[in-house]
Amino acid sequence: MKDNSSTYDRILLAHGSGGRLTQELIRFLFKPKLSNPVLDAFDDAAEIKNFLKKGERLAFTTDSFVVDPIFFPGGDIGKLAVCGTVNDLAMKGARPVAVAVAVIIEEGFGLDPLKKIVLSFSAAAKEAGIYVAAGDTKVVEKGKADKIFLTTTGIGVIPVGINISGSNAKIGDEVIINGTIGDHGIAVVTARNDFKLKSDVRSDCAPLNGLVSKMLGSGSKVHVLRDPTRGGLATTLNEIADSSAVGIIIDEKAVPVRKEVRSACDILGFDPLYVANEGKLIAVAPHSSASKLLTCMRRHKYGRDSRLIGKVVKSPKGVWIKTTAGGLRRLIMLEGSQLPRIC
Amino acid sequence: MKDNSSTYDRILLAHGSGGRLTQELIRFLFKPKLSNPVLDAFDDAAEIKNFLKKGERLAFTTDSFVVDPIFFPGGDIGKLAVCGTVNDLAMKGARPVAVAVAVIIEEGFGLDPLKKIVLSFSAAAKEAGIYVAAGDTKVVEKGKADKIFLTTTGIGVIPVGINISGSNAKIGDEVIINGTIGDHGIAVVTARNDFKLKSDVRSDCAPLNGLVSKMLGSGSKVHVLRDPTRGGLATTLNEIADSSAVGIIIDEKAVPVRKEVRSACDILGFDPLYVANEGKLIAVAPHSSASKLLTCMRRHKYGRDSRLIGKVVKSPKGVWIKTTAGGLRRLIMLEGSQLPRIC
Question: What is the ipTM for the molecules in this complex?
Fold first, then answer.
């Protein structure tokens, strides 16, 4: 691997040795796509000028990505790793600043798919407006990992006056979602091809910091932001209800689900309410702010299908769904493991 | 796994689902050992009050740990993950503040070894004076990872006036190491038992931030700090020589190597200069500061065997060793992969 034309087409154990081949991997593959002054210092730790002004707080979050397959309609593990971390920062109302990325690669993994992943990582980082400040590469023997795992850790700035948390839902608040649910989970499970299922569903994988910035800049009050990833809408709503010690009632008719997602779920025996999303957020906001917030969200490309889907109530506690038949059914947290390695 | 007495003794895929079992793992295993106000908020991102004063900079570093075996004399993957990250922060002269930890676990991994790892992680974090701000748990199917991989990402504060980098070595500077080399690599390779080798060598795995703080507090000038982990002393010296565009000449007689490490290396055909360390640092400092620095280092428990081992020169460029026979031999970067999965 020299001057971008490689003498190797696969990853060797020596690429993780910390020696010459690790340096080559960095110089010829990672650096050309991710270069910036902070990363390029290549010291043991990156040095970042203080980006926090008086009263601002640091947002800090980490996630490993082990999605299978690593390429799927609408994204891949590189894009997913950026979006997952950027969205976790955005859910605190933070402006994402930088990300550190640690890669664990299985010996024998191709340099071509690795380049593809670095490219899409870099494109997603650019869209989200963040830079890569630090990185690490480890290689394990063939059969000791599954192709490639990424861990991304993000830092961001929580502006003065922003106080968003899962524990801030108030009785009477409205619950909003920015579009259809279950797209990511169904796109990944279809790509996995275990079920010989065909569908045109693409993952909704997207960085939501732009949308959140518009929402918070609109002057509307927002109490809670959460992205319903693993465990889906139902599990995330349960986390909010628990943390805020309230009840949440969702209107089944109002929850947007693509026809193709619904059919795939029917075939697989899944409930879309528990299927993972990677470009969705739940916003809980006071009734007085909800319609202004919806208008603002619908103007953003990742919020066009935003909908009011429910309400925060004093009782019953927990999460409930008003079914299309008119009944009230309890939605518990995800039990067991519906779709392993969805992110 | 309820009230600390588990109904499961192994990790299931569902522990990584984001649903009920993930919550149980957090509540009954991680939280009791790692709890602190920042972590306990359990939002999508941690919120940390600004810890940077005017002129201070943020240090930021990430590393995945895939060491095999996960338990070895002198440490385990939990202690290693903390020390590795703390030391990378310390090598910028930073005071470590907090760490985020992401865990990838193989389905079927025992809860007992997991508890042991969490305990030693927590003990090392305590010694280093840092707290866990954020975490993530993923589980992959049996055979898709090797027991457990950890990724730790650290943040710290670089005080005003501290400017330490691999590119700061100056001609005439002295090169110092804080003790014997190769202990970690030999301890791990012995524990691996592939070579039926017996030795009493323990890993030197230790958080070095306390030692660095004493060094910088002593008023001595320090130009470079680096921890010679993967690739060993020789590779790290090459990185410094490259970044600073200087030569470095090491005196073979002066480099401290334990007798047992030397014998093990002889049997295995390794050169101790390329064997990994996890509690060692290389300091490059002006001649005028070196003896004061050595005195200060020798007073610290992780610096008792500190030694002057070499000098920074204008030429020849690269890294050279004055052999005991009196010759000058070039030390290049580690080629190939001497000891995969050493950290």
Answer: 0.96
